[in-house]
Amino acid sequence: PIFSPNQDVEFYRDLGIVGKDFALRSWQGIIAIELLTKCLHETRPYEKENGSADFIYREYLRKIYSSLKGTNGKVEDLLKSMRRDFQNLPVQKDRKPLIGIIGEIFVRSNKFSNEDLARKIEVHGGEAWLAPVEEWIYYINHTASQNALLKKEWSDIMNTLLKTFFQKRIEHKYSGYFSGFLKTLNEPETKEIIKKASPYLHSSFEGEAILSIGKAVDLIERGASGIVNAMPFGCMPGTIVTALMQGLNKKYGVPFISIPYDGTESPTTEIQLEAFMHQAKEYKAHG
After folding, report:
1. Structural contact between residues 182 and 42, judged by C-beta atoms closer than 8 angstroms
2. Quick one: 64 exposed, middle or buried, by C-beta within 10 A (0-12, 13-18, 19+)?
3. Domain ranges of the chain
4. Which residue has the higher pLDDT, 287 or 244?
5. Segment 60-72, tens digit of pLDDT
6. Rounded CA gap, 190 and 194, in Å?
7. Cα(264)–Cα(121) distance, rounded to whole angstroms?
8. Helix/strand/coil (H, E, C) string of 93-105?
9. Does the 96-132+187-287 domain belong in CATH 3.20.20.190?
10. 242 CB contacts (<8 Å, ≥6 apart)?
11. Angle, in degrees to the nearest 10, between helices 52-69 and 22-43
12. Which of 233, 231, 224, 286 is nearest to 255 (CA)?
């Protein structure tokens, strides 16, 4: 069977079909895996022993899965030891160009779909900052509450606000274990992302494009030396982002590239990425 809930005010009610704890467990997993991914991306480019960061990543991916699968999983204990293990890895002290990855939520996050983009950025001498998965969940909450407000559906508004409150509380608690270690820890609120995108897209233009543009601005303001827009081939929101990023490039001067993926590996993508990374290094050195 295929279960595809609508991403609106009915979203969490529909998820209840799967099980009463499904939404909670899923959210705990999303945040835990996001923190694990941040640890990997901030550590792997600088590891002294090749493969050491990947080894820790795989170990904790398995442990988090096992913890969430059980009934008495201690995710928080795993997060504490995860920080310790990554922090104890021998790393180099040099800093590489920070490359922000935005775009379609699945393609940018799935290593198979984007041909392991983060690793390729690292191979070419960069450090990847991947826009988080929870960005989309918070955006769903935001648009759902806005639509419910227009319809004066007060109970739906309250339910969505409560969901967001408890989600934020879990995120804040889990993230606290990595305070002072992860520089990519604090992600902007949905309203802040929309505000950053407002010179280029109106808030009524819903979907991934406004998040990608707003997050791109945020990444640039926080020191990114380049932005990669990972998108499915022929994706309309991705194409809109590609067009609007020309304006960001003129304003900030930060190198930008859109990479469309269609499931087949293209040799030209590697060439384009290599040229882009050269520009990013130049920007970091002289920008």
Report:
1. yes
2. buried
3. 96-132+187-287
4. 244
5. 999 999 998 876 6
6. 6
7. 19
8. CCCCCEEEEEECH
9. no
10. 229, 231, 258
11. 170
12. 224
The DSSP call for residue 140 is H
For residue 132, the model assigns a pLDDT of: 94
C-alpha span between 83 and 103 (Å, rounded): 28
**Terminal C-alpha separation, the chain:** 52
What letter does residue 124 receive in the DSSP assignment? T
pTM over 0.85: yes
Paired strand residues for 232: 261
> Is residue 230 within 8 Å of 117, Cβ to Cβ?
yes
Q: What whole-number distance in Å separates Cα of residue 213 and Cα of residue 196? A: 8
Q: pLDDT at position 211, please?
A: 95
Task: List the one residue out of 104, 100, 107 whose CA is nearest residue 263.
Answer: 107
Please tell me whether residue 44 adopts helix, strand or coil conformation: helix
What whole-number distance in Å separates Cα of residue 254 and Cα of residue 272? Answer: 16
CA quadruple 146, 166, 74, 17: dihedral sign: negative
